[in-house]
Amino acid sequence: MTARIGVTLNVNGRARRVRVPPMKRLLDVLREDCGLTGAKEGCGEGECGACTVLLNGDPVNACLVPAVHADGARIVTVEGLERRGKLAPLQRAFADLGAAQCGICTPGMLLTAVALLARSRGRVPGEEEVRTALAGNLCRCTGYQRIVDAVRAAAAPAARARRPARRRAAAKPKGRRR
Fold first, then answer.
1. Calpha distance 111→59 (Å, rounded)
2. 0.90 cut: is pTM over it?
3. How far apart are the C-alpha atoms of 36 and 31, rounded to whole Å?
4. Which residues have CB under 8 Å from 34's CB, separation 6+?
5. What is the pLDDT of residues 61-76, one digit of tens each?
6. In what order do the strands lie in the sheet with 5-11?
7. Pairwise CA distance, residues 14 & 77, whole Å
8. Going from the N-terminus, what domains does the chain have, and what CATH number goes with each?
9. How far is Cα of residue 152 from the mean position of the Cα atoms in its chain?
10. Which of 42, 60, 84, 111 is deepest in the core (most CB within 10 A)?
11. Whole-angstrom Cα distance, residue 105 to residue 123?
């Protein structure tokens, strides 16, 4: 009988306690033990990004991470992006701009983009910056342009909200107009 190790994970804001064999992959724990099937097994070698989740805010290939190494970690899966049944702005941009095709790569693309947008701190990242961030996520259906456009479109409202308000007084003439 294989020994099992107790692991506590914070998955999408919810504490989860599982007992797993020492080398069970985080991807398998999420899919089999937690019932979260958004992360996909693509290559099983960390090359395609279909299994990407956020581990303490950083994108990782869940197929390469032993679950015991995630003990005590905060994990976000694609299921954790929506709030109160509503798609996150990034998910909405993917849907609106046709960035999601077959859906195999979409969860990994979304989570990698979430990490990029968090690092951007309200700034719209440039096209090349988005492409570089998403380089570890492979998509066989698109030419990536719609994905890049969706990431940048999702960043735009946050960037507008963070801009300092222009001083209205500076824009108005000081005297009354006649």
1. 7
2. no
3. 5
4. 9, 11, 16, 18
5. 999 999 999 999 999 9
6. 14-20, 5-11, 74-76, 52-55, 58-61
7. 12
8. 5-80 (3.10.20.30), 89-162 (1.10.150.120)
9. 14
10. 111
11. 25
Which distant-in-sequence residues (6+ apart) come within 8 Å of 32 by Cβ? none
Which class for 16: exposed (0-12), middle (13-18), buried (19 or more C-beta within 10 A)? middle
Contact by Cβ (8 Å): 67, 45: no
Tokens of 101: 């095709």
Closest CA to 107 of 145, 75, 85: 75
Residues in the chain: 178
Query: What secondary structure, in 3-state letters, does the chain show?
Result: CCCCEEEEEEECCEEEEEEECCCCEHHHHHHHHCCCCCCCCCCCCCCCCCCEEEECCEEEECCCCEHHHHCCCEEECHHHCCECCECCHHHHHHHHCCCCCCCCCHHHHHHHHHHHHHHHCCCCCCHHHHHHHHHHCCCCCCCCHHHHHHHHHHHHHHHHHHCCCCCHHHHCCCCCCC
